[in-house]
Write a structure and sequence with these properties.
By secondary structure, the protein is mostly beta strands. It is built from two helices and 18 strands. It has a four-stranded mixed sheet with strand order 1-2-7-8, with no helix packed on it. A four-stranded antiparallel sheet has the order 5-4-9-10, with no helix packed on it. The longest helix has 21 residues.
C-alpha cells in the first residue's frame, strides 16, 4: 500500500508539472501576510489646557497601511455630534502620518511648536475641550474613535490631566480602547518625540511613534480610567452573565490571576481573563471554561 501511494503522488506531481509546462498564464496565491492593511485614523495625542502657549490640540494618526481621505471626517467633544468640526483640511493622511486639530491658525500653531509646513492642521476649532471631556472622531456618521477623560471623572486610579503637557498612549493597546488609564503625560526626552514648545508646553504634536499599530478595535462607550481594564469581551458586557452554551469545567482551582495584560480585565467579583483560545474565568459563577 505504501508503494502505491507513492506512485499515485508521483503521477499527480507529473501531471502538475506537465500542466505547468503547457500553461504559462501567471498567477499568484492570496496571502494574508501580504494583503494591504486598510487605513485607520485614531486619536494619538491631546492637550486640553496649554499653560504657556495659546492652543489646545488633538492629534489623529493613520495607523493603517493605506491612505485615508479625511474629507468626510469630523471632530466633536462630549456632545458626540458628527459633523461638528470638519477635518477635511487634513486632506489625505498617508500611512503613519498625523494631523492636528487646533484652536489657533495653522501658521501660529506651527510656529509655536516648530512644525514644518508639511504637517497637516485643521485650524480654528471652536469645540473646545474641558478638564473632564471627550474626544470624538467621526467618519461620516460612524464613530472612528473616542477618548473619554477627566481626573474628576476617573479618580481611582486617576485620569491624567493634560495641563501644559500632552497625553499620549503608552503602547498600541491604548489606541481605540477608550481607556485613559493607558495614557501618560509627555515629557522631554521620553522617547516619544516630545519637545518643549516656544512657550514651554510639552508634547509631540504632528508625529506619533505608534503610526504602524493598526488596525485596532474601536471600543467607544463611556471610557474607563483603569489600566487593568482592556477591550475584551466576556460572556456579557457586564462580565457576570451566564456562561456560554457548551462550557466545560474550569480545569484548575478557583484562584486565578490575570497574566495576559494584553487582553484581560478585573471586576468587583474578582479577576477575569481571556487568552487567544477564548478561555474565560468568571468568579461570579461556578468556575467555567468557555470556548470562543
Amino acid at each position: 500500500m505504501r508503494t502505491e501511494r507513492v506512485r499515485v503522488r508521483s503521477r499527480a506531481v507529473a501531471a502538475v508539472l506537465t500542466l505547468g509546462a503547457l500553461c504559462v498564464v501567471p498567477f499568484a496565491l492570496a496571502s494574508p501576510a501580504g494583503a494591504a492593511v486598510p487605513g485607520q485614523v485614531v486619536i494619538t495625542e491631546w492637550m486640553y489646557n496649554p499653560l504657556a502657549s495659546t492652543s489646545e490640540f488633538v492629534e489623529v494618526t493613520n495607523i493603517g497601511g493605506e491612505p485615508v481621505d479625511m474629507t468626510g471626517y469630523s471632530f466633536d467633544d462630549d456632545s458626540r455630534t458628527a459633523g461638528s468640526f470638519s477635518l477635511a483640511a487634513l486632506g489625505t493622511l498617508a500611512p503613519g502620518e498625523s494631523g492636528l486639530i487646533v484652536e489657533t491658525t495653522a501658521a501660529a500653531f506651527r510656529t509655536q511648536w516648530g512644525l514644518a509646513a508639511t504637517v497637516k492642521v485643521a485650524e480654528n476649532n471652536t469645540n473646545n475641550l474641558g478638564r473632564n471631556d471627550e474626544i470624538n472622531i467621526f467618519n461620516g456618521a460612524t464613530l472612528a474613535d473616542r477618548l473619554t477623560y477627566g481626573d474628576q471623572t476617573f479618580s481611582s486610579p486617576p485620569s491624567i490631566r493634560t495641563q501644559g503637557r500632552s497625553g499620549v498612549p503608552t503602547t498600541c493597546l491604548g489606541l481605540g480602547a477608550n481607556n485613559v488609564g493607558l495614557w501618560v503625560l509627555s515629557a522631554v526626552g521620553d522617547g516619544r518625540g516630545s519637545v518643549a514648545s516656544v512657550s514651554g508646553d510639552v508634547g509631540s504634536p504632528g508625529t506619533s511613534p505608534l503610526g504602524a499599530c493598526g488596525p485596532v478595535t474601536i471600543v467607544g462607550g463611556n471610557g474607563t480610567g483603569n489600566p487593568n481594564t482592556l477591550p475584551c469581551q466576556p460572556e456579557l458586557a457586564s462580565g457576570t452573565g451566564l456562561v456560554a452554551a457548551g462550557a466545560h469545567a474550569w480545569p484548575g482551582g478557583t484562584s486565578v490571576t490575570v497574566a495576559d495584560q494584553a487582553c484581560a480585565w478585573k471586576t468587583t467579583t474578582g479577576p477575569e481573563g481571556r487568552d487567544v483560545s477564548g478561555l474565560v474565568f468568571d468568579p461570579a459563577h461556578t468556575p467555567t471554561c468557555c470556548g470562543p
